Amino acid sequence: MLDKAQDAPETVFLTTDEASLYLQTTTMAVWAPRGQTPVVRSATQRDKVNFYGTLDLHTGREIVLRTTEMNAKASVQHLEQVLAAFPHRPIVLFWDRATWHKGPLVDKFLVAHPRLELVYFPVGAPDLNPQEHVWKATRRAVSHNHLTPKLPELADQFEEHLERSTFQSSFLHRYGYGAYVCPNSI
């Protein structure tokens, strides 16, 4: 992989993960005036919306796909979105070993798109993936202690936060990829 980046300095380094968003409110500590306990409604339904998120490790920008399912078809749809975001550039994409990241549909797609190289994170090491930290920051900003009564509205807010925010990561530097950063991508 480092050889690829040396031969193609315009290589884009990305990290991908998926998350589910529920209408159920998750709570976190907040400050409030004495005697005015904050009230947070909690929905009992288990409806959810899924998101694929890909973090550009150079710019901190997100590529987002909202979907009803996390499966091989949705994975390929998101990979198409990633390729379209960086036309004609080699891509190294780090992701985990989820079952929907594998199988004939994904394999066929990868063979047809050789400029996309996958690197799998080790099993049981989600904290290595910077996209996990993006989810955490977005949940803190949007879905913790929320008062939004409808899931589609909450999903819109979640997606908007992902698309308008920049999420910095030291992943490339920490693991020795910093020397291969393309100066035009910063």
Verbal overview:
With 186 residues, this protein is α/β, with parallel strands linked by helices. The chain has one domain: 2-Layer Sandwich (Nucleotidyltransferase, domain 5), CATH 3.30.420. The chain contains 6 helices and 5 strands. A 5-stranded mixed β-sheet has the order 3-2-1-4-5, sandwiched between helices. Helix 3 links the parallel strand 4 and strand 5. The longest helix has 14 residues.
Q: Helix content range of the residues, please?
A: 25-40%
- The sequence of SSEs as H and E is HEEEHEHEHHH
Q: By CATH's scheme, which homologous superfamily applies?
A: Ribonuclease H-like superfamily/Ribonuclease H
Segments where pLDDT lies below 50 for 5+ residues? 180-186
- Within the largest sheet, what's the order of strands? 3-2-1-4-5
The profile of the biggest β sheet is:
5 strands, mixed
Describe the secondary-structure layout.
Blueprint: H1 2-7, E1 12-22, E2 48-56, E3 62-67, H2 72-85, E4 91-95, H3 104-112, E5 116-120, H4 130-143, H5 151-164, H6 171-174
Parallel strand pairs: 1-4, 4-5
Antiparallel strand pairs: 1-2, 2-3
Helix pairs in contact: 4-5
Q: Tags for this entry?
A:
186 residues, alpha/beta, Nucleotidyltransferase, domain 5, five-stranded mixed β-sheet, 5 strands, disordered C terminus
TL;DR?
The protein has 6 helices and 5 strands; from the N terminus they run αβββαβαβααα. It has 186 residues and is of the alpha/beta class. It has a single domain (2-22, 46-185), classed as Nucleotidyltransferase, domain 5 (2-Layer Sandwich), CATH 3.30.420.10.
